Amino acid sequence: MDVDEPAGAPTLNITRTLGVNIPSTSRVSDVMSSFRPTKLFSRDDIKEGKERPHVLSIDFDDPGDLCMTSESDETIQIYNVKEGRHDKSLLSKKYGVKLAKFTHTASSIIYASTKQNDAIRYLATHDNSFIRYFEGHEAAVTSLSLHPGSDNFISCSLDNTVRLWNMGTKQWSAKLLLNNPTLAAWDPSGSSFAIACPASASLLLYDHRKVEKGPFSTFDVLKARGPAEPEVAFRGYTQLEFSNDGKHILLGSRGGGHFLLDAFDGNLKAYLRKPAGGTKRSASGEAEPGTLESSGDCCFSPDGRYVLSGSKKDLLVWDTLSVTGSSKVLEPAYVLEEKREAAVVSYNPRYNMIATADQEVMFWLPDPHA
């Protein structure tokens, strides 16, 4: 079964080489303040008079060499990071596409459907063919989270289920019935995972080997919300992510700030205040007809020290080592200037390089002269 082939799809005509000005071994703390918008990718295959599509998700492969977006015009775009060029465009007009993720093999990906049914699709990009469908969800998928070291992944859905999958078989390996589970995230060891349930203002933590025994810990977001209004604890979640050092959990919010939680006891470490508020995207699982859903407007840096967030303009950066005081409110350490909205944000796992997007994709690199 082939993905819809673009008939004579034009290239992006990118000729300038992006390059890597800062070695991948540079400490993040040495370059964070010097990141600048460096390479803009603007789709030139959009017909005149047609609205540019919106980027729904961004992901990098394990080596950090490829960047992939899923877009609202039912396409998947793949970019070569080191050469700063567009590599490939894949169409999924029949099923739609969102939440596209690289597997641990860069030539295969998984993504959620937006049309026909709510299956998750496993695609080989080298020959544009489907390897497998993962069927079972009866409503829209809101989150896909790939295990950090194996071919397992978690999906959350508006059908109030969380399902665990092994890519070697089309049948789910475990199913959890929960109230409003919208986001999932693996801890860096892959031994446990967290599920965000905004309707109950809670994060549920499970041992991957003992899922059937229920959560081994439950974090109360309402209790840990800090200075945020109570209603923010019950809706508006945009991201769930563990830091790579395993110490913190980032819970993104559409409200006036994001929540940085202790990964061991769920207590609030800091409320990451957004001075100008968030982006226009709806929270995960809360998109109304005609609106766009967030797939992650904030993320950790690979060293776990910094949190980056998009906003209506500019890229916000918080230093988690900064002292917050009794209020637990942490202001951005850096505001990286950019006139375009950064609705989706991702930090390359191997290189000091960031990708942001709304209707266009921007690559950010440290300025060696800053």
From TrEMBL:
<dbReference type="GO" id="GO:0003682">
    <property type="term" value="F:chromatin binding"/>
</dbReference>
<keyword id="KW-0853">WD repeat</keyword>
<protein>
    <submittedName>
        <fullName>WD40-repeat-containing domain protein</fullName>
    </submittedName>
</protein>
<dbReference type="InterPro" id="IPR036322">
    <property type="entry name" value="WD40_repeat_dom_sf"/>
</dbReference>
<comment type="similarity">
    <text>Belongs to the WD repeat SWD2 family.</text>
</comment>
<feature type="repeat" description="WD">
    <location>
        <begin position="134"/>
        <end position="167"/>
    </location>
</feature>
<dbReference type="InterPro" id="IPR037867">
    <property type="entry name" value="Swd2/WDR82"/>
</dbReference>
<feature type="region of interest" description="Disordered">
    <location>
        <begin position="276"/>
        <end position="295"/>
    </location>
</feature>
<dbReference type="GO" id="GO:0016070">
    <property type="term" value="P:RNA metabolic process"/>
</dbReference>
<keyword id="KW-0677">Repeat</keyword>
<dbReference type="GO" id="GO:0048188">
    <property type="term" value="C:Set1C/COMPASS complex"/>
</dbReference>
<keyword id="KW-0539">Nucleus</keyword>
<dbReference type="InterPro" id="IPR015943">
    <property type="entry name" value="WD40/YVTN_repeat-like_dom_sf"/>
</dbReference>
<dbReference type="Pfam" id="PF00400">
    <property type="entry name" value="WD40"/>
</dbReference>
<dbReference type="InterPro" id="IPR001680">
    <property type="entry name" value="WD40_rpt"/>
</dbReference>
